[in-house]
Amino acid sequence: MNLELQKNHKVTSKIETMLIYFLLLQPVLDVMAYFNIPVSIVFRVLAMGVGFIYILLQPNTRLKRLSIMYIAVLALFMATHFMINYMMKIQFTASLEMTYMIKTVFFVELLIVYLFVMKSFSIRESWQRIVQVCIFINMAIIGVVMLVASLTNTGKRSYGSLAKEGHSGWFFSGNELSVILAMGFSVMILYFVNRKTVRHKITLLPIIGLVIWAMLTVGTKVSFGAVIIVLGVAILLSILEVIRRKKDVLNVTILSTLLLVTIVVTPSSPIGNNLNLTFGLNFTNEENGSFIDEEDQLEAKQLQQDLLSGRNDFLNNVKEQYGKAPLSQKVFGMGIGGNYVDAPKLIEMDGLDWYYNFGFLGFVLLILPLVYIGYHILATILKTRLNILNVSIIFVGLSICLGLGSALVAGHVLSSPASGIYLATLIGYLYVITKQQRSDYIKK
């Protein structure tokens, strides 16, 4: 029996290591997909299969039983969802429906898989550093690809509108790429602030600068907002550390410089153009003083309207379709794009896409793992009255908030394997470090 358990442990340990380093393949798979080399879907479906085997090989715990039961129910739901839409939809493209289902299930299953992976991987020495380095390397690769695409003028435009600037390099979606960069940048800064030597910090600076440039070059609000938020939070935490322990002055200096340079160069970057940013405000002098020109006010109103990027029209259309749909589609969903007439489109707000595409039952089923894990993370933090909060928890939590926030307003996360795998990994990461910190807190 012991030999069998030992053999089983060796297999799960190998799978676990493979799944950790599978993260490093992500930017490579995305670039290959951009150049029509069809291997990304193969590797990601294979990862789903290997991940499920990994769950089956876990010790017989309550979490394992719940996970297997959930995956079985989800598979049954998806089969029913597919058959209902096959019978109900006037326009039904099996390949599109199947692809969208797989992409959605990919995130949900990998969320469960990486929860187990992180729990097991966390017994290894320097496990956090390994995860952070993997993500840091990926962000560096993305930055280099973006730079080469810029130098060769071969980057894919982020927007169809000629008035908007920015490109996503050799990656398909600007929105998707900006979410990946937003989540990854928070981990990059976490890795940076944890480095102890000045030499190490200075070595990392060019890579961080390159990634910030890439985030401004994509031209989306998500990546730009992430730079400002993450650097702002990092500076605040470093200042608190200086006050408490009289150290980390270098972190404050470097991070403040990065933020200042970012703000200075933003108006001349693609995102500056897209947000109509400029150093000078247009003032008109009159006898009663100065006031902001009406054109600036109109631009501000237009900016507010642009924040939803035209999603309202399609949302209203899908609402109308859902209202007219039979009960079976209200419960099991209308499939990708709803009961479309011309061509299937997503609202690009993942929560709403899940609701209308998979129905009320599907939405509840898909969101269950997020609610379950999120509840345990928050409960663990609150039980200690926030005393376990440290730099790692704050930055990983911030990364997850940026990912989930982007999913709510910009999409391209929960049904996108390219960005979903980062969110799944980080949620598992946060779950484990909160449990570890609580355990250490209780021992004190």
From TrEMBL:
Molecular functions (GO terms): ligase activity
What are the record keywords, sorted?
Ligase, Membrane, Transmembrane, Transmembrane helix
Under InterPro entries, the record lists:
O-antigen_lig
Lineage: superkingdom: Bacteria
**Pfam families, per this entry?**
O-antigen_lig
Question: Where is the chain membrane-spanning?
Answer: 41-57, 69-88, 100-118, 130-150, 170-193, 202-218, 224-243, 250-271, 354-375, 387-410, 416-434
| Record's protein name | O-antigen ligase family protein
Species of origin reads: Virgibacillus byunsanensis
What taxonomic lineage is listed for the species of origin? Answer: Bacteria, Bacillati, Bacillota, Bacilli, Bacillales
